[in-house]
Design a protein that fits this description.
Helices cover 30% and strands 22% of the residues. The chain contains 19 helices and 26 strands. The strands form 5 sheets. It has an 8-stranded parallel beta sheet. Helix 11 crosses helix 12. The N terminus is likely disordered.
């Protein structure tokens, strides 16, 4: 082969296009230059003076990781209104500056697409922080009871007391068993009003005798499918209830916030999210007590230009809903669609969680789980009903987003997705499984075959206290085999980063570090051996993809955001160091310098 390449020239056309061509001698050069000449008039946004139209915001002297591909790196970006109008070098961006342009010099910092969270419950912890009992940062029964009593004493007029989160580890016994929290401590605080405290996973509650009474739960109450009722040696309910059993209590009380309180919580939540560099989310609504199952609050904030998180709304349904009802919920949400808020997704639970013994497994739990011999967990949905629901939603063009933690639940969900595909034909569905803690090897292959998105929580992927509960309930070998992220990607699967907040914190830099190290990201722990399946670690770039372009894809927003390209919306985050090259243990220490939502700087660090 004759080498015609003498040098590489970068042509960054001001406007919609950016080209990289190799210039040399001969016919090839002529053809390439003619192609650029033909395309230039259509792509250029320059004025008659040859200078770009003045931008509102210019960011320069940066490592701009565009996420188009790993090697696509620029130095500067210009933004006009809510749109990126230039991506290129420092010299070229000067054409977009005038006296009214705000210029940010990152002095070598990093610019990436804004972080996105592929599964989160907004406004997360802020409801309890502002209006309920927040147990964050404490971990013993004594501390829990003291905090609960303090709140009850300070709010004597309240008719119901709610809060979160408690950790089941507080009641772990030396023999591996765990009786869970007891109603007596809460009865001593309030005997005539219900107290409802959610665990860290929001799948179990700790309630008092009044709560059990409201739920109609006695020693003779049959355990609902997909739920668990803890009982003492005498057969009396202890006050610890999981999943469908917890619903018996929570459904009896009004946990809804006023519109004013909901907006206050949402604004506080998005302010914190912006401080972490988050500009987009997959917002699971209607899943937690008191949440609205619509987009009205967010649509109103978007109309008032107060919303700083671009989001896909996933409406939640539970067994008992019909396909027509589910479709109607989605269509009502979609009536308020905009570039900032869009519906089109239904979220369902297929099973519970491992630490409550309610995740659906293909192998039985150990007896330490307290469920007896031969317990596999059980699905929340009847198989035929679930399959029918998924097929009808798929036929209606609705994306399905399923909570599946056990490998039995993951397999059943994939079966339903495949059944729907066979019935309705291939389409760009982007159905999602979230959590996916345990998965069979053969089902990893099916993720790619069915184009299923895996929305995973990376803060769950090191040996934290919840891992200790999982290991106690299913054994160390099975617990360590959870979250095979590298295998999923190597086999062509799509992974998005997600926090599941308020279950866990929603700081993407901490989550990215865990994905790379499979160890704790927290000071005092990151130099200890809390590794969990380190052979499943991902590269920093793969993790950045998971929290940017992959969530944009999951949310059907890849034409708007997820990469830094001319014509896309300016949702960006500026960082104090390059998280792709820094020591992985330092990723979570990276400072967020600026967060830009829809062209506006909404956070300055």
């Amino acid at each position: 082969m004759i080498n015609l390449v003498n040098k590489k020239e970068e042509f960054r056309i001001l406007g919609k296009c950016r080209y990289s061509i190799r210039a040399g001698k001969g016919l090839l050069t002529v053809i390439l230059m003619m192609a650029v000449a033909v395309l230039l008039p259509a792509c250029s946004q320059t004025g008659s003076s040859g200078k770009g139209a003045p931008a509102d915001l210019v960011i320069k002297n940066a490592t701009v990781q565009t996420m188009v591909n790993e090697n696509d790196v620029a130095q500067a970006v210009a933004i006009k209104g809510d749109t990126i109008v230039y991506v290129g070098d420092n010299e070229g961006v000067a054409a977009f500056e005038d006296k009214n342009t705000q210029v940010v010099d990152l002095e070598g910092g990093m610019l990436t697409p804004g972080f996105m969270d592929g599964h989160i419950h907004a406004p997360s912890n802020w409801v309890d922080r502002l209006f309920g009992i927040s147990l964050e940062g404490i971990y013993t029964e004594k501390e829990y009871l003291a905090k609960i009593k303090e709140f009850v004493d300070a709010n004597p007029k309240s008719q119901v007391y709610t809060g979160a989160p408690f950790m089941l580890n507080a009641w772990q016994q030396s023999d591996g068993t765990n009786p869970g929290p007891q109603k007596k401590g809460l009865d001593d605080i309030s005997a005539d009003k219900p107290i409802i405290i959610y665990d860290v996973a929001h799948h179990s509650i700790w309630t008092n005798s009044k709560g059990l009474e409201l739920g109609g739960i006695t020693r003779d109450t049959p355990v609902p499918v997909g739920g668990a009722i803890a009982k003492d040696d005498a057969g009396e309910p202890t006050g610890y209830l999981s999943d469908a059993a917890a619903d018996l209590v929570t459904s009896t009380v009004d946990l809804a916030l006023t519109p004013e309180k909901e907006q206050e919580a949402v604004k506080a939540f998005q302010q914190e999210a912006n401080s972490y560099g988050i500009t987009g989310i997959t917002n699971i609504v209607g899943a937690l007590g008191g949440e609205k199952n619509d987009s009205s609050t967010y649509a109103k904030l978007a109309t008032n230009k107060e919303l700083t998180l671009r989001m896909r709304i996933a409406n939640t349904i539970k067994p008992g809903a019909t396909p027509d009802e589910a479709i109607e919920i989605v269509r009502n949400t979609q009536k308020e669609d905009s570039d900032m808020v869009a519906g089109g997704t239904i979220k369902m639970f297929y099973d519970g969680v491992t630490e409550s013994g309610t995740a659906f497994m293909t192998e039985p739990y150990l007896e330490a789980a307290g469920m007896g011999k031969g317990w596999y967990g059980e699905p929340i949905w009847d198989k035929a009903t679930f399959d029918n629901m998924v097929a009808k939603l798929d036929a209606a063009g609705i994306q399905v987003h399923v909570h599946a933690i056990g490998d039995g639940a993951v397999q059943a969900t994939l079966n339903s997705y495949e059944t729907a595909k066979n019935a309705n034909g291939q389409r760009d569905a982007r159905h999602t499984i979230t959590h996916e803690c345990a998965i069979l090897d053969k089902d990893i292959d099916r993720l790619a075959e069915l184009n299923v998105v895996s929305a995973l929580q990376f803060l769950w992927m090191y040996a934290d206290p919840l891992y200790e509960l999982e290991a106690a309930f299913i054994g160390t070998e099975r617990a360590l085999a959870m979250y095979p992220t590298k295998t999923i990607i190597d086999k062509g699967g799509i992974i998005t980063g997600a926090s599941d907040a308020p279950v866990t914190a929603y700081n993407p830099l901490e989550e990215i570090e865990v994905g790379v190290t499979r160890n704790s990201p927290y000071s005092g722990e990151e130099n200890t051996d809390m590794h969990r399946a380190a052979n499943q670690a991902l590269t920093p770039y793969q993790m950045l993809e998971a929290y940017t372009k992959n969530v944009a894809y999951e949310n059907f927003m890849e034409k708007l955001v997820g990469t830094i390209e001319v014509g896309k919306k300016a949702d960006l985050v500026a960082l104090g160091q390059n998280i792709l090259t820094v020591d992985p243990k330092l990723i979570s220490d990276t400072k967020v310098l600026y967060t830009i939502s829809n062209g506006r700087i909404v956070y300055t660090g």
